[in-house]
Amino acid sequence: MSTIQGTGGPAARPAKSVRVVIVDDHAIFRSGLKADLDAGIHVVGEAATVEQAIAVIAEQRPDVVLLDVHLPGGLGGGGREVIAGSAALLSATRFLALSVSDAAEDVVAVIRAGARGYVTKTISGAEITDAVFRVAGGDAVFSPRLAGFVLDAFGTAPADIADDELDKLSARELEVMRLIARGYSYKEVAKELFISIKTVETHVSAVLRKLQLSSRHELTKWAAERRLL
Amino acid sequence: MTTLPVRPPLARSSDRIIAGVCSGLALHLGWPVKTVRWGMVLASFAGGAGLVFYAWLWIMVPTADEAARRNARRPASPIAPAVSRPPAATAADDGSPMGAAGPDPSGTGAPPAAPWFRVQGMRYGKEILLGCGLLLVAAIMIAQLLGVDVSLGTLIPAAAVLGGASIAWMQLDETRRAGLLDKTKADQAGGWGRLAAGLALVVAGVLVMVSGSGSWEQTWLALLASVAVLGGVVLVLLPWALKFWRDLEAERAGRIRETERAEIAAHLHDSVLQTLALIQRRAGSEHDVVRLARAQERELRGWLFQDHGRESGQLSDRIKAAAAEVEDLLGNAVEVVTVGDAAMTEAHEALVQASREAMLNASRHGGGTVSVYLEASDAQAEIFIKDRGPGFELGNVPSDRLGVRESIIGRMKRHGGSAVILSTDGGTEVRLRLPAADNAEGKP
Questions:
Q1: What is the CATH number of domain B313-442?
Q2: Residue A60 φ/ψ, nearest 5 degrees
């Protein structure tokens, strides 16, 4: 979890600062996270429940929402419900899921709801800053664990020829996912595969799209079966 | 009453002639089963005292299974009766040959209720029941031959009442056990049938007995009257009975919740509170605090998310255990991601050992988080161990240092696998690969 970017260097930072809303029901965690975030990130709002979160996001229209997967309130859907409730803003506001749970079921649910990435709460301040910039820039953030989930869910056999079906990963996407699962940063993945960082980001975004759009019911079933990961 | 230091709880034993009361009592008192049984039979002659005592114990004393469940901390699971039966119950086995094949006490004219109950839990229940019935008939005929006046008019209704009562009471016992064994509804339907049959028998018997050999008209009237009275009583008592039942259910549910809460509290106390106390005492040492927190997190996560359905001892479990061990030993986090899994073999054991060695090296020399990735399929198992330390040149490692050369590369080769170590200034990655056994047969 601590190797989203590691020593791979920060993502290209946008010129303007990033506006962020933190949604987490633990005040201690919120204040800790706020203190950890880089100066280029402005926390414009905080929320502790599903209702508060939807209201604050609609009011502030932040660039990025740091969203806890488990939240009180609403209909019990947690982070997933917040994303669903903010669906109208999804083009401008991006969600980065934070969790202590590590349960595949939770993670896959929140990603499929529309989150652009998933990191665990033990992540360091520098790494979370980096992840926020990356998500703000439109990229996906995959932790090694999320890459592991993807490989487990989609299987490790590549799709036939260059078909664009959603149920399988291409050989290249598999390679990228494997390297991320092994703890490689995007930069290291690029170096290892002799491709540019931009291409790595494109592959990761493609995998994220498949994860979100794949209609195979096995994905949800798989996640439900694997409670512990 | 002798005072034994530890007395087994009074419970009806599964080694039973009728309902396991005698052997349970014998176990509790520490007396021979035989003595208790004969004592009970003899006491029956003293104005039926033995009988009454027996019936009372039967009703009040739980079966061994029930007692075990009551004492168990966890809520009952379907396997609980089989697992948690106290050893005392099996200790009574020495009495069982006598119990199973012993002379029928009722054959000698003792507890009259006994033969009907004997079906309970016996392998040849029906045959034994039939035999006892025939024996009883024979005894009556002999008695009549000897000149004792036994009027069939009282005998048949009495038999009907006893039979009906026994069927109904057996049902009670049965439902008690059904609660433990989670019997299907089909069995419950059978139970209701039995209850109805028993009830009908008893009612008919009592009617005939009370009304004597009166006319049908009288009997009919009596039946009507008694049903009316019974109906009235039921009407009055039903609310109480329902309330009683609901209270019982509520109390049971509450007790289960309480047990669960106590278990969680006990666990949190043993683990999390202790760790928090330790963390406060070691607040000065960042290294210790991180290590304690990591270890506690791992433990709690394992406890919360443990999947009972999954078989343990798989390759991924072993790798995670090795990572945990290294984490505890050296303090640096070891992140494990696994895809797929495989059952352990001897070669996998070597793979785990080699991985552990690689993790130790990575944690020791890398000095930061170690990433471990396991991908296992039917064809092969691959493990990647990556750190972000300064890296090293394999050729520079002195030949007397066995760590890398022997424990990792040599070990993998001996088991038909391979090990590659890649080191750059950005970190070191150890790649271990082990083909599945049938794929590896072609090796020299």
A1: 3.30.565.10
A2: -90, -25
